[in-house]
């Protein structure tokens, strides 16, 4: 009798054990993001509601996305990855995936389907640019200009950036070749669909630099996204490129005399990656959070706090009003039809190949 | 200390065993001079009969060991947490095992290929690449290698990524079908496991044996059993290649002999065409030249890059002029660091002088003013300079208001070298003032009074009496400021624009953005070497003993 009981007990624990293992989830989670208004929008839309559902979970935010690629590589080499989910731009996600530092995900298994049943893979569509990348938002790099410094005819064409006669004054451009080279070629008479073919040749690169050279003396080169809004607010520059969400906050939240020039805006994606090599309990927690935080409603919620377009097609109709300002957010989205008349999509493959080469030329040209 | 000349500076006034040693040596030398060659004149002996020199040495050694034991914890700590990581990081500037580890077969096969011939390598090299790439793709190593080689040749990154996606779908299943048609046993994993345990078979099929070992190692790392996993096309391809090359002679299995007899009539797959179909760049000899040039385990490539040269399939060349940047940045970094050091001396010297000559209470108050910015965040101070110096900033506004400059020709004082020098001088000034102040405090005011009472003018008294005594402070401050500024990158990044950035900005870029850590390590090594060289030159010219912090 006794032995039978023990045997039954052993059998039942043996049956239960794997189930208990699978259910076990870590209660701490370190999320990495960009800080500032963007991270706040993620806290409000994703982690705060998640923690309401799971009060025992502790979420720590780390504002390290800027150097996430280098830090992840260092953590990986040290064999001690302390991050659970990292917010990076798509180009970095591709590199992390290439380096084996990010985990591959299966969109249909790891991500929630849309409310109407569309699979996650179809809902995200082309925006799943890497096997490791879960997109959250579409943002764009575009120009803002001072409405009081441009006279009666405000700029409405990307080439106005290169027109010093019509719009004298300084411009703020990012201190890297990406985007600037494309805009320069576009305004040097290259057709939009040939931009990357031209840019792949040394002559095309020279051509783009020559076009940028026409305004070089009037450019302040920025390296942090906050620079251009500051320069615009101070009146240091007439126009400058930056992320559209930064311009939104200058225009709508700080009420500065600034307006958007959406022409030839360059779409880019920002999203999550899971670092490779997480222990099972932390991975289980992260996957649980990810499933929740990237569903249709959550992505739409994020747009209440910041003017970036949700990456899911099914989220777009759910975008409502700004949580504090009460204005409709849809017209401020880079993906709004009125804003998206002439757009580029960041060419990931091209820049993965040409980044080092063109960057060397660009930096040498800058220093001259 | 005795009147005998010691060999080095003595730090303590009390006699040490070392003093005794010097003295003993000197006495011995003196004895020899007094009585040359006398047989009775042996070395000086200690009380116990051993030579004095030896017994002193022994005492000294014991003392040194004790001192070493005392500092051992700190020494080990510094070695482990400071020297070792730096050495490890700098070592990356020559490390290059990734190519030979990811493409072992290809590197060997490429050894005989002539990169100057202007033609892509022959079929066996493509076969080797096929084997290597198959395993690299399985372990997701091919994209990493692509990134590495893309630093040297643009386009290799996508070449490897694209080919990696295709390599599993090459037409090599032709071999699989033909070989399994001969004997269905070939499709059984168990057949292969048994076959590869026989040394005769392995010797007859060398390429297959190596591929099989990588296959089993890969499966083991995935936790899979080789006896249960389907045999991949790549193994049938190596089997076919081996059978064609060796005829299977010496193999123990009859199955191998049977296949060897049949392979002559097989339909073949040209792997170079398969690769060319995946990406035509595989027919570009430059791509192969790059792989071959970077095949060795250690490379000078990163160092060449950091002095504006490059390693190409055709030897070492200067980089194209429109890509040369590093030499210019090194020169600029040194030039601007010297400028910053000089302006720190010019501004800091009078301040330190005043601090040293005021009554203590007032001096302490002023000292707080010197230290206050020192305790403020670096970013805050740098950003404050932005507000001050920009064209719509405080200084320009004031000048326009005073009518000194016109509103449309405001001064450009930031995002250039001027801005960097101003901001960094401000940030590093305390490092100049503090050593100067502490040295000046030790200069007796009576010296100046004495000079004046002997008829010196104010200037002569300062220049001939006071200034020489303050030089050690200038030396200490200059070394501190110069070495700190040569490695600065946050301030130049924020206020430097395009003409005021340092080499450290590029190092930071390669560490955190381009992930080219090898190049960053090479640039860092050169910077370290330059600092050490300048330190040595300083020691030769001024003498490092002539540096005082107080």
Automatic annotation (TrEMBL), chain A:
Record keyword Acyltransferase present: no
SUPFAM superfamilies per record: Periplasmic binding protein-like II
N-terminal signal peptide: 1-22
InterPro entries: SBP
Superkingdom of origin: Bacteria
UniProt entry keywords in alphabetical sequence: Signal
Protein name per Swiss-Prot or TrEMBL: Extracellular solute-binding protein
Organism name: Antarcticimicrobium luteum
Automatic annotation (TrEMBL), chain B:
GO biological-process terms attached to the record: transmembrane transport
CDD domains named among the record's database cross-references: TM_PBP2
Keyword Iron part of the UniProt annotation: no
Classification via InterPro entries: MetI-like, MetI-like_sf
Protein family membership: Belongs to the binding-protein-dependent transport system permease family. CysTW subfamily.
Alphabetic keyword roster: Cell membrane, Membrane, Transmembrane, Transmembrane helix, Transport
UniProt name for this protein: ABC transporter permease
Domain (ABC transmembrane type-1): residue spans on this chain: 330-538
Pfam families: BPD_transp_1 (PF00528)
Localization in the cell: Cell membrane
